[in-house]
Amino acid sequence: MTASKISTTCVIGAGAWGTALATMCVRAGLYTTLWCRSADLAKAIATDRENTTYLPGHRLPEDLQVTSNLSEVAGSDLLILATPAQATREVVTRLSEHINKPAPLIITAKGLERDSNKFLTDVARESSDLQPLVLSGPSFAADVVAGLPTAITLAGEDAQQTSAIAHALSTRSFRIYVSKDMKGVQIGGAVKNVLAIAVGICAGKGLGASAQAALLARSFAELRRLAAALGAQPETLFGLSGLGDLVLTCSSTQSRNFSLGVELGKGVDLETILALRTAVSEGVHTAGVVRAIAAAHHIEMPVCEAVARIVSSNANVDDEITHLMSRPLRAEHD
Hints:
Layout: E1 8-12, H1 16-27, E2 31-35, H2 39-48, E3 65-67, E4 78-81, H3 88-96, E5 104-107, H4 120-127, E6 131-136, H5 141-145, E7 150-155, H6 159-169, E8 174-179, H7 182-204, H8 209-229, H9 234-237, H10 240-249, H11 256-265, H12 270-275, H13 282-296, H14 302-313, H15 317-325
Parallel strand pairs: 1-2, 1-4, 2-3, 4-5, 5-6, 7-8
Antiparallel strand pairs: 6-7
Helix pairs in contact: 3-4, 7-8, 7-10, 7-11, 7-13, 7-14, 13-14, 14-15
């Protein structure tokens, strides 16, 4: 596949990120369709040229096509999946019923499947004949749709195909770097959401900038340990989809996971936080999966374990902080 052969794309999922990516695809010169699960949302976006539910305040391109009919994605040169991680299996299964030719499928959700503990690329392979790639890195939807400078990583097994897609999607403000380390890119994207909840809790409790910096550094150590145990390339974790995404997600309330942690730190219960949100905070669903994988590989990930206990077992935030600070002293890089 060459960049010149990519002329049509469909973005599946009309949340904030899917809407931003669809806008970016139009700017890259591709004939782009945005698929919405809701027919009402599709109609509203097509009429108003704005996604007031998930990305308000941003005018969308006039030539962006909008549909709620999955059959309209058939024949697209490129598919971009922007649905929540836990919906991947269902949506890809439905999508495969309408595809009439093999096509690359870019997965943009940052999570792991909760019931199986599997990577989303593995879920896609089990559910279809599509060729999965992964797009991940430090990027907020509002920045991308506003045309602000953004750099991100696209990982795929076929280097030539990955490079062609990166060239087809890149613009002056949206720069795509390529990688073959699909596992490392997925680990970085999924685990940083769990860690961002922890750093958000620290901020919400008002524990200070020093504590946040320390927690961020120790969180990165956990991310690297898990990646090494699962066979990811070390350099991936120091790149955009690892350290870059972790720093962004742990430093701004634009992050759904960091802001959720802030609210938890302020004493708001999880059910109340989630009830007031339209968008998914992936770290809530991924925390238990990360804890299970870490246990299976005998990896110490105390920060992720604390978050898992808080979001899945209603553990007391103050007790978890005390537990973390009471851990035995050790060499920093053991």
